[in-house]
TrEMBL record:
It comes from Mycobacterium adipatum. Residues 4-126 form the Putative oxidoreductase/dehydrogenase Rossmann-like domain. Transmembrane segments: none annotated. It comes from the Bacteria. SUPFAM superfamilies: 6-phosphogluconate dehydrogenase C-terminal domain-like, NAD(P)-binding Rossmann-fold domains. Pfam families: DUF2520, Rossmann-like. This is Oxidoreductase. The lineage of its organism: Bacteria, Bacillati, Actinomycetota, Actinomycetes, Mycobacteriales. Gene3D superfamilies: NAD(P)-binding Rossmann-like Domain, ProC-like, C-terminal domain. Residues 143-284 form the DUF2520 domain.
Length: 307
């Protein structure tokens, strides 16, 4: 210890300074590692690096790799194979470097060119959505991380890194990464779509019906429609996570085919595409709820309206 400071355990390089890379870089620095270099090409990335990692040098990719004992590859899934191939071709990464990528759909197979050069391959994916806000960093200590490694030594390293930043590590088999990632995309991305579709429909239903003292229903986020949907959606999510199938309520779960048909008519008048999405989601709900036949008839035969 020098002047009250603990020496860094690992020097970290981050490629690149996007939402995920900088958030994890901050988390690793809080765990007393040091992010010595990062790559940042776009103006947004350079600004993000300056804000989140102000003491970190912004360097070309090979120079970032050459300085790192722990190299974090936080690029979009589609860019990962080319990045790895380029790093292997330039021999920028030293043998013994811990190379971690954050892609959800890829395991360690994509890192094979660097593994062949003596690197320790790890796939560590935070099961969290990143928007670029400071909340991204605050959420990491409560996030689960899917870890895939080559051997038990790799798993021990991956587990330690996740635990150091306050996350919860869990193993994902190499051959299960795509299914794992699809499940998370379904939970996150489609949830956003369903909620925003509901908000849009509610805005249409409420526009011009405001009470004295309420703001006019508009299209800006955070208004009356969001205040109505928010508590309902949050309660439904918590019920689903805590109670499973028992969380299902509403006309499909009750077997109320007439109400389902009415919903489809109203949504069809407001937005035919939204009506089709409602039909698809209701059909899946009906399957889960083992709804009666007349509900399936409404959902599988467009235009069918039970008496």
């Amino acid at each position: 210890m020098v002047d009250g400071l603990r020496p860094a355990r690992l020097t970290v390089g981050v490629i690149s300074a996007g939402r995920v890379g900088t958030a994890l870089g901050v988390a690793l620095e809080r765990a007393e590692h040091v992010v010595v270099a990062c790559s940042a090409i776009s103006r947004q990335s350079r600004e993000r690096a300056a804000r989140r990692l102000p003491d970190t040098a912004v360097l070309p990719v090979p120079d970032v790799a050459g300085r790192a004992e722990l190299l974090l590859l936080a690029v979009p899934d589609a860019e990962l194979p080319a990045l790895i191939a380029g790093l292997a071709a330039t021999e920028a990464v030293r043998a013994g470097t811990i190379v971690v990528h954050t892609s959800g759909m890829n395991g360690i197979g994509v890192l094979a060119p660097l593994t062949a050069r003596g690197c320790i391959p790890l796939a560590i994916h935070p099961a969290m959505t990143f928007t670029g806000s400071d909340e991204d960093i605050a959420r990491l200590p409560d996030t689960c991380f899917g870890v895939t490694a080559l051997d038990e030594i790799g798993y021990a390293i991956g587990q330690a890194l996740v635990l150091e930043i306050g996350g919860e590590p869990f193993r994902v088999r190499e051959d299960a990464r795509m299914l794992y990632h699809a499940a998370l995309a379904h939970a996150s991305n489609h949830l956003v779509t369903v909620v925003l579709d509901a908000v849009d429909a509610l805005r249409s239903a409420l526009r011009g019906q405001e009470l004295l003292g309420q703001e006019l229903v508009g299209d800006a986020p955070g208004g009356l429609a969001e205040r109505i949907v928010g508590p309902l959606a949050r309660a439904s999510l918590e019920n689903a996570l805590q109670r499973g199938q028992a969380a299902l309520t509403g006309p499909v779960a009750r077997g109320d085919a007439a109400a389902v048909a009415g919903h489809l008519r109203a949504l069809g008048e407001a937005d035919p595409e939204l009506a089709q999405a409602y039909r698809s989601n209701s059909l899946r709900t009906a399957q889960r709820a083992h709804a009666p036949k007349d509900v399936f008839d409404v959902l599988t035969t467009p235009g069918t309206n039970p008496s």
